[in-house]
Amino acid sequence: MVATSSQKAPLVVVVGSTGAQGGSVINHLISSTKEYRLRGITRDPTKSNATALVERGVEVVKGDLASRESLESAFKGATYVFGVTNFWETMDPEKEVRDGKLLVDVAKEAGVKLFIWSGLEPVTQVSNGKYTKVGHFDSKAKVTEYLKASGLPYSNVQPGFYLSNFSTMMVPRKGEDGTYTLALPVKASAQVPVLDAQRDYGAYVVEAIESPSFGAGSEVLAAKEYISFADIVAKWSEVSGKTIKHQELPDEVMVKLVPHGGEELVEMLRFFQDFGYFGGKDIAPSQKDLGSETWGFEQWARSVDWNKVLAA
């Protein structure tokens, strides 16, 4: 399937079009029963994943989140804009806030009908100051507050906990006895709302655009299910054929293991444990108008070659 070129169709501009979230948004917009013209923003339109979008009917343009001029050009004529920022690229919360605010300002000036924002919870506020070092949540939350005050019609589509974390940064470690341990500073009973971002995030963005239950002023929680770490390792063991156990790691041990970013990781997981990833919000309403089936942990886990991942 390819995007339409009909000028009668609304134009959707997608920031980060070659990333996990932006790429998923494009996939689901192309698959929608409604027609959309698509314009993807990327820093390097010559890369293979950008040229692949062109072959699918997407207009790909060069853009920089720190460049007002490039964003003004990219947002021209847009009905909808999907905005996302990448904290992990610089790990600079102040830059992320600046970039996010600029997206909002330019979208408003362009007369965008609906700005879809990829936000996260204000950890410091929700935890009443208990956890103050989860910068990548708080910085996005500051942009959300700016967006709400701007007068720009918006929908905040918050991504859940990436399932891909379990095949990358949170891969269990093999012990001498052949079993595997997922050692993290979080209780086994703690739950996370999980999302296969690359496959499913876009379904929630399409829901925000198309469902009359959402639209301007709405919040969509993009996650299939809440699942505890105890259930994660149980399903993981079943699917992979390996014995995988959870171990609650002391906070100070994790900080030593991860000198750069360890404190943020600890506070993030303890926040999930004590207050909930979405601050205790129910994800059920965000499932009702999805145009396609989304995956939970087990479905995602069955799609991964664990012999390869766990051998790394």
The helix-and-strand class reads alpha/beta
The parts where pLDDT drops under 50 for at least 5 residues are none
**What's the N-to-C terminus distance?**
36 Å
- The fraction of residues assigned to DSSP E strands is 15-25%
Count of helical regions: 13
Ordered list of secondary-structure elements with their pairings:
Blueprint: E1 11-15, H1 20-31, E2 37-42, H2 48-55, E3 59-62, H3 68-75, E4 80-83, H4 87-90, H5 93-109, E5 114-117, H6 123-126, H7 135-150, E6 154-159, E7 161-162, E8 173-174, E9 180-184, E10 191-195, H8 197-210, E11 218-222, E12 225-228, H9 229-240, E13 244-248, H10 251-257, H11 262-275, H12 297-301, H13 306-311
Parallel strand pairs: 1-2, 1-4, 2-3, 4-5, 5-6, 6-11, 7-10, 9-13
Antiparallel strand pairs: 8-9, 10-12
Helix pairs in contact: 1-8, 3-5, 5-7, 10-11
Q: How would you concisely characterize the structure shown here?
A:
The chain is an alpha/beta fold.
Please name the defining characteristics of this protein.
3-stranded mixed β-sheet, single chain, alpha/beta, 13 strands, 312 residues, 7-stranded parallel β-sheet, globular
Structural account:
- The mean pLDDT is 96.
- 41% of the residues lie in helices and 18% in strands.
- The chain has 312 residues and is of the alpha/beta class.
- Helix 1 crosses helix 8 (197-210), helix 5 (93-109) packs parallel to helix 7 (135-150) and helix 10 runs antiparallel to helix 11 (262-275).
- It starts with 10 loop residues before the first strand and ends with a helix.
- The chain is built from 13 helices and 13 strands.
- The strands form three sheets. Strands 3-2-1-4-5-6-11 form a seven-stranded parallel beta sheet, with helices on both faces.
- The chain is globular.
- It has helices at residues 20-31, 48-55, 68-75, 87-90, 93-109, 123-126, 135-150, 197-210, 229-240, 251-257, 262-275, 297-301, 306-311; strands at 11-15, 37-42, 59-62, 80-83, 114-117, 154-159, 161-162, 173-174, 180-184, 191-195, 218-222, 225-228, 244-248.
